[in-house]
Amino acid sequence: MPGQLPAFIGACLAVIVVPGPDLALLLRNAAVAGRSGAAATATGIMLGNTILAGAAVAGLTALLQSSGPLYNAIRLLGAAYLIYLGVRALISLGRRNDRSGEQPQEAPAGPRLPGKRAFRQGLLSNLLNPKVAAFYLALFPQFSLPGMPTPAQHALLAALFCLLSLTWYVLLISALGRVQTWLQRRKVQRSITGLSGAALIGLGTSLAAHG
Length: 211
What we know:
The protein has about 210 residues and is mainly α. It has one domain (about 5-210). The protein has helices at about 5-15, 20-60, 60-65, 70-100, 115-125, 130-140, 150-180, 180-185, 185-210. Helix 1 crosses helix 7, helix 2 packs across helix 9 (about 185-210) and helix 4 (about 70-100) runs antiparallel to helix 9. The chain is globular, with a radius of gyration of 18 Å. Residues about 100-110 have low confidence and may be disordered.
């Protein structure tokens, strides 16, 4: 067990920290609604992680991956959702540019994105990405914890992955809170919104094309 856990933790950290749809969405919502928007988004992402981890432990993830049509349907739906979020971000960017002469250099963040919507976006972004479910399926069998039955092993590994994810998002949101004033600057908001919107469209397109 001591030799397996460090390797598992390293693999988890590589997956958690590497930028992907969840991080792009979180940064976009942080630019739009500040730390509260980022926190609501991260809460939705974490709920999605927990649901998918539970599904992997229960064996539902394997069923999903073995069903080609169902997997592809979820993959395309998830890709469409990411592209939709990216397009909305770019449209909102265009609208802000049209009103740029009326806005102050520093605009208060928050009202443009209700917490419930940010939470829902984080949850759906995570649940509709079948690669996350496939990650659970591919990762867990690679590690063995002697003296424990397989279901208990997978439950422990899933809980550890969720704990590491939660730690990462707490640290990330804490860091965003330290630059809250900087995030509220109109130029910074436009830059982050534009880059994250383009990233969401690119990630959605990649998910649709290379499932």
